[in-house]
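User: Batch of two.

Assistant: Item 1 of 2:
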Amino acid sequence: MIKLTPAVTAIALACAAPLAAAAQDNLPTHGDTISEFRTAGAWNIRKNETRENCFASYESDSGAIVQFGFAEGETAGYLGLFSPNATDVPATQEIAILANGNLYVGEATGMGPSVTDGYSGGYILVNNPEFAKDIEMGQELVAFPETPNSYIIDMRGAKNAVYEVRKCTTELQSK
């Protein structure tokens, strides 16, 4: 297995079933109006004014950026992985994720540029309400994309970040 490295070109999580296009509208993209909400340990909670939701992100020791957020009232979620050294990310790629003993399988979607200049990668939409609980557990997640390698994503401190994402989204949507 490979720890999350700058050379990583795969996405980190998977969906149990495809989501509607409306759920994809929750994904942050380059050009969205994004501001800081607060921090939760190593995680930065960001307000996406364009999409009227919030997400958490952190930069790993390797320089890769990990993001997560929720859609459709937490019946769905997403996780993104972006690297400054990523090569072309396929438009779609089969992937499986092991999170706290639960296996999620589906398709990762390459998004190209991230909300941070110079980074590229993509997102996985997870159509399973248990996903939020697995993120909250704050353990390592293991991704098995269609490559010879697997990747470990450190999710320590995610419980506080999930709380702050919920709070941020509630405040943003109540305006």
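Item 2 of 2:
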Amino acid sequence: MLHVFKHELRLIFRDPKFWIPFVIPPVILAASQGIAVSRYGGQIMEGMEGYMMLLLGCLMAPMGSPLAGDSFAGERERNSLELLQLSPIAPTRLFWGKLLAIVPFPVVFALLAQVIYWGTHPEISTVSALASILGALSAVLLTTSFSLMLSLRVKTVRAAAHMSLFMVVPILLLVQLGHESFLSGLFVPVTTLAISVLLTILATVMSMRKFVSL
């Protein structure tokens, strides 16, 4: 499993295009916020900092989808999935090695972007900041597990990446409609994270069984 983990990390670091999605959301959000402030004044952003921090974390979450999509669909597209299954490494170890190489990237980048935003906006309360971080973690877990399931069921990386982007719409709608209650305390964020963890475990077990049965 450790060998697969290291191999996947080498592939990720070798291809610079995988880093592009992690840079785009913070740049777009900062640019849109700067345009709004320059056009309408700083008053337009008063009370919106917590919402923007939550939105930033949730926008970063699906950026790991290309990595998850490439994990198995990429192997199939490169005609190397069969060779991978014939290797002496147990299928479960192969699966966990690939999964563990994917998850850290969206988690680290989402948290890093939020911490930097919080540092530049100290007026955000600790409760709102922690709620935003928990929301980002929930979004990362759900989108990564969903993308991983798609990667095992489609034939190309492009199809996996495109289909996984459908997760962005419901996440943004939930942020737009429920950010006030979500940021008002920690009960809703903690409950959301607990549900996300359970759904992620379920999706991961299903994906592992699917990979073993291929």
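The mean pLDDT is 77.
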